[in-house]
């Protein structure tokens, strides 16, 4: 009997590309979202959970939006906003550092005129009251689907385009 481990004798052959699906398989509510391009609008993501931020970035990029950066803290968000001039920020409330997402949104609005969508588990009355001066364009309650995020971003951008001035 051969002393080589059994696994060493196994050969794995990957499926050829002709067996791969030609189009991504999407849930019904995601199909409608994926059919419309985001026309290159520049978006800043402020989220300190790396996995959530990555999923947001991929989803919004795939929808046609240009992601100018992902920030985990207020300082990162403010630096990116100053350098990249996004038209919209998607903001978590609990982020890394000494300032939260509401303080960050207030500063983005005050210093750069950038409005945001809050995508957070924290949307209580006090949070909404504190955030009101930043003129948020929406609140997306965690957990949310990526289709909901994309739809909210589209609605917010439509509102921004519809505003006079």
Account of the 3D structure:
- The chain has 165 residues and is α/β, with parallel strands linked by helices.
- It has a single domain, classed as 3-Layer(aba) Sandwich (Rossmann fold), CATH 3.40.50.2300.
- It is 43% helix and 15% strand.
- The chain is built from 7 helices and 5 strands; from the N terminus they run H-H-E-H-E-H-E-H-E-H-E-H.
- The protein has helices at 6-9, 28-34, 50-62, 74-84, 101-112, 125-131, 146-162, and strands at residues 42-46, 66-71, 88-91, 115-120, 138-141.
- Strands 2-1-3-4-5 form a 5-stranded parallel β-sheet, with helices on both faces.
- Helix 6 (125-131) links the parallel strand 4 and strand 5.
- The radius of gyration is 20 Å and the shape is globular.
- It starts with 5 loop residues before the first helix and ends with a helix.
- Mean pLDDT is 83; it is low at 4-37.
The order of strands across the largest sheet is: 2-1-3-4-5
Structural class: alpha/beta
Shape: globular
How many beta-strand runs? 5
What's the story with the biggest beta sheet?
Answer: 5 strands, parallel
* Regions with little confidence, pLDDT below 50 for 5+ residues: 4-37
């Amino acid at each position: 009997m051969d002393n080589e481990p059994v696994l060493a004798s196994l050969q794995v052959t990957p499926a050829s590309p002709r067996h791969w699906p030609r189009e991504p398989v999407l849930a019904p509510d995601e199909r409608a979202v994926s059919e419309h391009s985001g026309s290159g609008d520049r978006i800043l993501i402020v989220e300190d959970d790396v996995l959530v931020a990555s999923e947001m970035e991929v989803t919004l990029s795939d929808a046609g939006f240009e992601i100018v950066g992902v920030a985990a803290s207020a300082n990162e968000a403010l630096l990116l906003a100053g350098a990249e001039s996004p038209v919209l920020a998607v903001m978590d409330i609990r982020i890394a550092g000494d300032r939260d997402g509401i303080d960050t949104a207030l500063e983005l609005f005050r210093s750069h005129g950038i409005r945001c969508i809050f995508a957070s588990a924290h949307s209580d009355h006090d949070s909404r009251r504190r955030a009101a001066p930043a003129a948020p364009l929406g609140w997306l309650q965690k957990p949310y689907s990526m289709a909901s995020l994309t739809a909210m971003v589209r609605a917010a951008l439509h509102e921004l385009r519809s505003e006079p001035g």
